[in-house]
Structure formats: C-alpha cells, structure tokens
Specification:
354 residues, 10 helices, 0% strand
Length: 354
C-alpha cells in the first residue's frame, strides 16, 4: 500500500471518529447521560457488590441494593448538607446586599484614591499607558456593565427554567443506578453479544484501560479538588469571611477546570483588597494561594503517578473547542475525552496518530 493510500485511510478514519464524536456529544449524550452514569457507577460498585454478596452470603439483588442505597445515602446526604449551608450563606448575602450596595460608593472612591496615589508615583511612560487604558475603560465600561447584567439575568432565568429538567435527570439517574446494579452482569453480557468477535477483544482492552487509568485519574482529580476545597475553606474561616463555604466552593470549582487554577479567583480578589486598602486580607489571600499551590504540587505527582496528562496547549484547545460546541460543560468534558483517547492510543487500542 502506497504512502498516499495510508495517509488517506488514516485521514478518513480520524474524520469518521471526529464526526461520530461530535454527533454523539451533540445529539446523543444528553438523553443517554443518566444511563451512561448508571453504567459507570455500576462498574465501580461491582467489586464491592461481589464482596458483600460473598461476605454476607446473600443474593446479588440484596447486595446490589444495599451497596447502592449506602452510596446514595452518603452522596445525597453530603449534597443536602452542602446545599443547606450554601442556601443559608446565599440568604445572608442577599440580606446584606443593600448594605453592600450602599457602601459601594465609599469603597469605589477609596479605590480611586489609592489608584491616584499609585498613578502619581508612576514614571511618565507608564502614566501615558494608564491614561490610554483608562480612556478605553471609560468608553467601553457602560457597554460591558450592561452586557454583564444581561448575562447574569439570562443565567438566572436559565437556572430556574432548568430546575424541572434537573429533577427529572436526578430521578432517572437514581433509578437507572439501581436497575443497572441489580442486572450489571446481564447488561454487560448483552452488550458484549452485540459486538462483532473482532471487536470484543479490543473493547475488552479499552474497558480495562478505562478502568485502570481514567477512573484512577478521575478519583485522583476528585481528591485534589477536595483537598483544595478544604484548604480554601480553612483559610477563609481563618480570615473570618462571612461566606467562607460559598467562596470555597466557587474557587474550588474554578480550580477544577483544566488550565485554570485558584489564582484565577484569588489574584484578582487580592488585587481588589490592595486597591481598597485592605492590605492584610490581600496578603492573606496570596499566602492562601501559595499554600494551596505547594500542597497541590506535592500531591499531584503522587496521586497521578503513571497517568498520562494532556499538554497545556492541548488542554486549552480542548477547553475552547468544547466551549464553542457544548458550552461550559464542554470545557470540562472534552479535555477528559481527549485524555481517554490518549490513553487508548498509548495502550494500542486505537491508532489515530503517530
């Protein structure tokens, strides 16, 4: 076979894979997501179900129901406690919002005074650049503020409109997890019978690769997110922030996004504290960022040992393309999909690139 034929064959294969992936994520992922999550959770719970069945000498249905119920109670209880606390903090924040708005002019004037003092101490060439930047902000500021307000109103309306769909999704997922756990071996055997014999070995290798690498990677990432959240919460409580849990949850979620980190939130926050004269809090935020960075740097190599990671430019590309096609969810999902494809490529399950 000539080099041109090989090139065309590989190009067509890659295009077909990409087309299938786009079609799946655009049209099939949303309706199938509860059942895919149930299948993944069933695979994760299967070793525990087998241990319980053998240890208690009970039927599979009882063991599966017991393990699934315990998982749902732990997960549901954790979510309920977190939501209750977040609701309390959001209510307190909304009660204080008029007071914060009333104090905004004084804080704004204090920040402007601080900027003026810094401006007076700057050299002439830097002052000219700051003058240009201030002019641009004066021209585009009202438009940006209006766009931000419209976006916030639209986001709030979208969240309220999505509540019934979220409830249906959660109920369907919980039922699917129970049914999948009860019949996991039969479901696995059925799916296996639908595959051609030539594909069964490859799919078995893919499942083994997924179980041994991606699930470990996801567990490690969840542990890193949890450690980051605990560090942030302890730091915010030590700083005596009024809404420590809310701030820790938001910052940890931003840190969970590929490429981004806690500095995306803590650096602008610290800068705002310095501009408003709250130097102590600004320094505390920078120290908290440094502590989190050191802990994250020490833990990540140990938790992700042997797990191939994506290069930063590839992760950034995946985030951007995922956001353009699927919104915020695509920013998280597509980098994970690319990591999975890289694991399959390294394991020899697929051959998409050299």
């Amino acid at each position: 076979m000539s080099q041109l034929s090989v090139f065309l064959q590989r190009t067509i294969t890659v295009l077909l894979w990409l087309g299938g992936a786009v079609a799946f994520f655009k049209w099939l992922l949303a309706p199938l997501l509860p059942f895919l999550l149930a299948l993944a959770l069933g695979a994760m719970m299967e070793p525990t179900v087998q241990k319980v069945r053998r240890g208690l000498r009970v039927k599979r249905g009882f063991a599966a129901g017991l393990v699934t119920t315990l998982l749902m109670l732990v997960a549901g209880g954790t979510v309920v406690l977190a939501l209750v606390r977040l609701t309390v903090e959001l209510r307190q924040w909304s009660d204080r919002l008029p007071q914060l708005i009333a104090g905004f002019p004084a804080a704004w004037n204090g920040m402007l005074d601080q900027i003026e003092r810094w401006y007076a101490a700057c050299p002439a060439f830097l002052r000219s650049a700051l003058d240009f930047l201030a002019g641009q902000l004066m021209e585009e500021g009202p438009g940006l503020a209006g766009a931000a307000g419209s976006w916030l109103m639209g986001a709030a309306s979208a969240v309220l409109a999505a509540l019934p769909d979220v409830g249906l999704f959660l109920v369907t997922t919980v039922l699917a997890v129970y049914f999948t756990s009860f019949s996991y071996p039969a479901i696995l055997a059925f799916l296996k019978r639908q595959l051609p014999p030539a594909w069964q070995s490859r799919c078995r290798d893919a499942a083994h690769c997924f179980r041994s690498t991606i699930l470990k990677w996801l567990r490690a990432e969840m542990l890193l997110i949890l450690v980051t959240f605990v560090i942030l919460l302890m730091g915010f409580l030590w700083m005596r922030l009024d809404y420590a849990l809310l701030a820790a949850v938001f910052t940890a979620l931003v840190d969970a996004l590929p490429v981004l980190g806690t500095g995306t939130v803590l650096f602008p926050w610290a800068l705002g504290c310095f501009l408003t004269g709250n130097t102590e809090r600004g320094l505390a935020l920078l120290v908290l960022y440094a502590v989190g960075l050191v802990v994250h740097t020490l833990l990540e190599p140990r938790l992700l040992a042997g797990q191939a990671d994506l290069p930063p430019i590839t992760a950034l590309l995946a985030m951007y393309v995922g956001f353009r096609f699927m919104g915020v969810g695509g920013m998280i999902l597509l980098p994970v999909v690319l990591l999975l494809l890289k694991q399959f490529q390294d394991a020899g399950v697929i051959h998409l690139w050299k």
